[in-house]
Amino acid sequence: MAQPEVALAESGTLAAFGFGAGTSDNDDPRWLRVALESFDAPAPIELWQVDAPVVCGRQNDVRWSAGGGWLFVAIEVDEQMAGGIEHAAHHAYAALRQFMGTRNERHVLRIWNYIGDINRGDGDAERYKQFCDGRAAGLGDFFATGFPAATAIGHHDRQRTLQIYLLASLDAGQAVENPRQTSAWRYPRQYGRTSPGFARAMLMPARDVLAISGTAAVVGHASAHEGNVEAQLSETLTNLEALLTSAGMPAGFDTHSPLKAYVRHATDAGRVRDILQQRLPGVPVLLMHGDVCRSELLVELDGWRYA
Ligand code: 3EB
């Protein structure tokens, strides 16, 4: 069973993540148990480390840590307490915005959103769309000068807790869009009242690492290959290649490129694993059981690419 104590005792640990029910609880503000099960159970603990001393704390329901010019912030909101997903998202993003206003590390580079039951509800009442409405309302004009890279994935925890965490920096990154995909903030009305605000990727300030947003089989603004997980995965890999080109990165992924694959149906996990081993040999991909925010999408990838 993955235990966080050793990781958190290491100097320079900015954050540590456990995945799924098998991981333990810990009161350290830098520890987050993500409510997603891994098909590679037990998933290794994910560690964010910086080359500097780290300080950490809490402010209301926000948890944070900082060191070396980097800032980690996390918030978890119980939907029942908040009065539903839209209110939870509104509260969470307003709290994150308020907290960021107290910090010098004001450039939000990358955000992860994990949402229970993400596809429940029809049309504009779908929970993901309500989340988008609440997120935008809570943010106000906070990202008016540019969106961070992001992931929004559905978890299966019975407790409907909205989990959000982010990485920010003293220095600005460089947002990257994908020429094969309509920018998310320009998605047409059919995808909801409020377009999702995120960049397809973010080059870190030192231009040494690319943070890759949740990437699926979206071409233009449309979902491709409905019902076909293999074709969706192939289209996703084509999107990722186009993104690397757009970012000015060398083609392909390597053993230093930690990725996550979120797979909707457990029955697809084996096939997804086989295809990824064949198409991305040697690349460390953690296989997660998670729902993509459009119900027709069966698989999504995100992660990091080092230059
Ligand atoms: C897509 O391409 C897939 O709402 O923050 C990917 C990454 C997606 C982030 C978000 C949504 C978000 O539209 C969905």
TrEMBL record:
Q: What SUPFAM superfamilies would the database entry show? A: YjgF-like
Domain annotation Chorismatase FkbO/Hyg5-like N-terminal: ranges: 46-168
Recorded superkingdom? Bacteria
Query: Which Pfam families does the protein's record reference?
Result: FkbO_Hyg5-like_N
What is the protein's given name? Pteridine-dependent deoxygenase
